Amino acid sequence: MAKPVRLLALLMFVCCTLCNAQTKSDLLTSNIKIETKEVLTSNVPNTINRTIKQDRKGNIWFAAFDGVYRYDGQSFTNVIKEVSSARFFSVTEDRKGNFWFTSIGSGVYFYNPAIGEKSFKNFTTNDGLANNRVPYSYEDKTGNIWFGTEGGASRYDGKTFRDYKLNVSLPGKYHNDNDVNAIIEDKTGKFWFGTRGDAYIYDGKKFTLITNNGETFTNVRAIIEDKKGNIWLGGKDGLWRYDGSKFTNFTKNFVGFIYEDKSGNIWTSAEDGYTGRWELCRYEAKSLSNQKPIVAKISSEYEGSKGMLFGILEAADGSIWFGAMDGVRRFDGKIITHFKNK
């Protein structure tokens, strides 16, 4: 049952090099006040929510510090509540419809929704996983499941794990290069790794440090490949795009997450360099070739939630879901809905 709360002065604004060149975006419009409301329900994540994904059946999944939740459009279910009380960081649906949940401290959990709770299998260092603290998971083009752990990367081929240790790039300096935050395979078959140290490309034989004008990318939290084949990096050094020949910087603010929507717009969660508040930002697809593209921003300083923003998802209905320190929000272009436990 929905319980509306008071309107907040949550103003979204659009920044552009030429103020008269501002254009309407599909979801976000300049100079509007956004209504926020609470929906009281049951079994909702109410702690840090790290990852949000939608499966092939339309269910939305949430990896949170208090469980792994499935939302079927009507209600939430914590599918792992009876199995583990670990803090969960990521959820990946593989091509067979199975799910992989990664945790901090308890390794990885496999789940087949067709069988249910009896299908759970826990993989740890005893099975060959590089480390039991696992912030990230990813399925590559051949069906291998990759895990970014705090002790390197692990690749699971369905039978065994193969572990990878990344190079320590700068001797004499402390780098957490084996604390892996992100892994993707690009269209050429190369793998990109973001770590709390530096970022690397892996060609199947060796790891190569990624640099731009001699500078490394530090504490890369997110990597994606967009529809055009560009690679986006986000982390301590801001938001960067690589077009195959050069890097372009879009912001120096700390970026925690990157997402491309169906229209080619780039969404990020980023820390405002002046206020320290976290914002949900959308870079207008049609303006990405400009020197300073149009950026729409939503401040995270809404009721009940201050601090970092996490996973972003555009659901099938066009709404934007994002994770916060106290659970999940859904934005439909006019209203931000905060789902809370009764």
Would you write up a description of this structure?
The chain is built from no helices and 34 strands. The protein has strands at residues 2-4, 11-15, 32-33, 35-41, 49-54, 60-64, 67-71, 76-78, 87-93, 99-104, 108-111, 121-123, 136-139, 145-149, 152-156, 161-164, 180-185, 191-195, 199-202, 207-209, 211-212, 215-216, 220-225, 231-235, 238-242, 247-251, 255-260, 266-271, 278-283, 295-299, 312-314, 320-324, 327-331, 335-341. The strands form eight sheets. Strands 1-4-34-33-32-31 form a six-stranded mixed sheet, with no helix packed on it. Strands 3-2-30-29-28-27 form a six-stranded antiparallel sheet, with no helix packed on it. The termini are close together. Mean pLDDT is 87; it is low at 1-32.
